[in-house]
Specification:
heterodimer; A: Rossmann fold; six-stranded mixed beta sheet; four-stranded antiparallel beta sheet; 11 helices; 27% strand; B: 304 residues; three-stranded antiparallel beta sheet; 11 strands
Chain lengths: 274, 304
């Protein structure tokens, strides 16, 4: 069994304000999550703004250093004391996908340049290998290299661009992809394309995901495990189906009851005479 | 009752003309919540802007007309020409990302007494406004704050307070809860529904979340590539969607407790954008009050 993700007493404190009236904000408060499995998994982290879910993602991506505690990905320490020393090794293990693909890539450079650079710098490939890797990665997200080559962000839709972000993340062959709100900027009707892609990459290509979202319905749809966060704490953690069909914590229940579903209404709606 | 007669709205950009709304004919009844769904570029925001009467270059009305069927504060009928004078009073707008639409450098109370043509006695207006925001679940001190001192949900409530203060006959809410968390979203939507029932006016809600539409609206308008795809009672549209695009929108939403594969149709339609489905301008009435673009199920070759 492998520790796909394990956080031990993860804490992160931000300091806000000036010298005199500084305030401490505990963005992560003793976060302990353990997912041990032989198969790749999708781990959803759900919660409202300010719950600490993005800070957790940033810590796993080494964009923030934890105040204390450790994070382990596939048996390797990635954050905290004793973390993998080399950035290159780290990026070969964990890759990010961000919320807004239009901001993740510069407007002034063709997007395929990012893919090629990832292949050369992170995966250490030469020109020919890089080209082949970019082509394979794009193919795995359902795109043709020829349709992408030399194009800028403005020439793609949000959904296409997010698929290109996924392709970029796949190039160094990472074991874990951390996706922070990857579909919130995409049209609702096209979101499932990305979500189903994650599912396929888990089942067919053996990638694990940390899926950060406030959308519990998609979290239920693709996740094996779910962590519900509130005010920096993990209030509930467990197998996704179990947590969402039989929530134990009041906060999880509140979140679940607030989802606008198409099956039962919060309030009676009168018929309108037309 | 609002009537849209063969409305065509275009943008003139450089030498090109883009028809964002192309031949929309529609009747919106009084006293109800109408939902408008469709993806980016479907023309829903352009249509809302036109109904609000905010037609400014490069956007222009290239054909058709809007009949408001509303009376303004001066007792005269509201028309496309004088609609601007009725803003906030007879017709109001809750814009997209409206959390950021409050003026950041003046206090909220200044923004309440700032409307042209309101009661000249500012003290009286303020008193009423304070009482009103209390009703909407905001603390009276919020009136004296600057926007940045309030949370996103409070700012959104404040925008709703501003938009409903004069009890307008028509409110257009463009993605009113998009940037909010589910818990706050539910509160805001419940508030909107309560206010509508109290005022008996018409609210047009633009959203890409079909769950929001199901919860809030009584009528649904589905737009695609500048045209109306489907229009009818919300219950009828959700229970028996007629057009492939409407089906795709409803199908794209996963549900907790339901493990079936979702979004398959979306994957098929892929990046086809506004070419994946064909939408004709003529609507046929399939059931009483339930209209669908003709031909109902025809689709062009799927683009990858």
């Amino acid at each position: 069994m492998t520790f796909i993700l394990k956080t031990e007493g993860l804490n992160k404190t931000y300091r806000l304000g000036g010298i005199v009236n500084a305030k401490q904000v505990q963005a992560l408060n003793d976060v302990n999550i353990t997912v041990e499995s032989d198969k790749p998994v999708v781990i959803a982290v759900v919660g409202e703004s300010g719950s600490g879910k993005t800070t957790l993602a940033k810590t796993l991506l080494r964009l923030e250093t934890p105040t204390s505690g450790q994070a382990i990905v596939y048996d390797e320490v990635v954050a905290g004391k004793g973390a993998i020393p080399s950035k290159k090794d780290f990026l070969g293990l964990v890759q990010p996908i961000f919320q807004n693909p239009f901001e993740a890539f510069s407007r002034y450079r063709p997007v395929d340049v990012y893919l090629e650079e990832t292949a050369r710098r992170v995966a250490g490939m030469d020109g020919v290998q890089a080209e082949a890797a970019v082509e394979a990665a794009l193919k795995s997200v359902g795109l043709n290299y020829d349709d992408v080559r030399g194009k800028y962000t403005a020439q793609f839709s949000g959904g296409e661009l997010q698929r290109i972000s996924v392709a970029r993340a796949l190039i160094p062959n990472p074991k874990l992809i951390v996706a922070d709100e990857p579909v919130s900027m995409i049209d609702a009707s096209r979101r499932m394309i990305i979500i189903n892609l994650f599912k396929r990459l888990r089942d067919e290509a053996g990638r694990s995901f940390v899926y950060i979202t406030h959308d519990l319905a998609t979290a239920y749809y693709i996740s094996d495990y779910v962590a519900v966060m509130n005010k920096g704490r993990v209030v509930e953690f467990g197998p996704a189906r179990k947590v969402m069909s039989d929530p134990q914590h009041d906060y999880t229940r509140l979140l679940l009851s607030s989802i606008p579903t198409t099956t039962s209404r919060w309030r009676e709606r009168k018929r309108v005479a037309s | 009752m609002i009537r849209l007669n063969d409305l065509k709205i275009s943008y003139r950009i450089g030498g090109r003309t883009i028809d964002a709304v192309d031949g929309v004919t529609l009747t919106i009844p009084d006293n109800c919540v109408v939902g408008i769904a469709g993806e980016s570029g479907s023309g829903k925001s352009t249509l809302m802007k036109a109904i609000y009467g905010d037609i400014q270059s490069p956007m222009y009305l290239s054909r058709g007309s809007i009949e408001y069927g509303l009376k303004g504060t001066d007792g005269k009928a509201v028309t496309a020409e004088n609609v601007r004078k009725e803003w906030f009073k007879t017709i109001s707008y809750i814009p997209q990302s409206s959390m950021n639409s409050l003026n950041p450098v003046i206090r909220i109370r200044e923004q309440f007494v700032d409307f042209p043509g309101t009661d000249s006695n500012k003290k009286r207006v303020l008193e009423r406004a304070r009482a009103y925001i209390g009703k909407l679940g905001l603390p009276p001190e919020a009136m004296d704050s600057y926007p940045h001192q309030l949370s996103g949900g409070m700012r959104q409530r404040m925008m709703i307070a501003l938009a409903t203060f004069f009890q307008p006959e028509l409110i257009i809410a463009d993605e009113p809860t998009t940037a909010l968390d589910v818990v706050v979203q539910k509160d805001i939507l419940m508030l909107l529904m309560e206010l509508q029932e109290e005022m008996g006016n018409t609210i047009l809600v633009v959203s890409h979340d079909m769950g929001v539409h199901y919860q809030v609206t009584q009528k649904m308008l589905i737009m695609y590539a500048g045209r109306v795809v489907e229009y009818g009672d919300t219950d009828s549209v959700f229970a028996d969607p007629q057009h492939a695009y409407t089906k795709m929108l409803i199908d794209s939403l996963p549900t907790i407790g339901d493990d079936s594969m979702r979004g398959v149709m979306a994957s098929e339609a892929g990046g086809g954008g506004d070419r994946a489905f064909r939408v004709e301008p003529n609507l046929i009435e399939v059931k009483p009050g339930h209209f669908v673009a003709q031909p109902a199920r025809q689709r062009e070759g799927v683009l990858a």
